[in-house]
Amino acid sequence: MNVELNRFDNSPLVVHNLKRYEKKIVIKIHEILRQRDLSLSDLHRMTGIRIASLSELSNARKSTLNIIHIVVIMQALRITDVREIFDIQFNEEVIEEWNEEMEGYEKGLTVKQQKEVEENLKLMEK
């Protein structure tokens, strides 16, 4: 299940920053449950998380993740890598841009990060 982040109600600055870089977020809970012949009801009984919350998460209807829920789901399903549950994939252009930006990086903000911070501060003042 792919997540469309721009549809969620966040502050204008958060939405601006979300749109800054092309990405795809994939929620894999339904896929995992299907492979294991389990249902959301089974996962509810395994974790204690409300079925409605599990449904919202697995159908990408939540804009935030509850880290406690993720950990409990991982424990229940014996998953050791969070990327088995969801994955965030930036496109190749973004990865290349960031790799170039981080070449020779030592500490602090890069020049590009500093420009982004300055842009954010201007937007915060509005």
UniProtKB/TrEMBL annotation:
<dbReference type="Pfam" id="PF13443">
    <property type="entry name" value="HTH_26"/>
</dbReference>
<feature type="coiled-coil region">
    <location>
        <begin position="88"/>
        <end position="115"/>
    </location>
</feature>
<protein>
    <submittedName>
        <fullName>Helix-turn-helix transcriptional regulator</fullName>
    </submittedName>
</protein>
<dbReference type="InterPro" id="IPR001387">
    <property type="entry name" value="Cro/C1-type_HTH"/>
</dbReference>
<feature type="domain" description="HTH cro/C1-type">
    <location>
        <begin position="28"/>
        <end position="89"/>
    </location>
</feature>
<dbReference type="InterPro" id="IPR010982">
    <property type="entry name" value="Lambda_DNA-bd_dom_sf"/>
</dbReference>
<keyword id="KW-0175">Coiled coil</keyword>
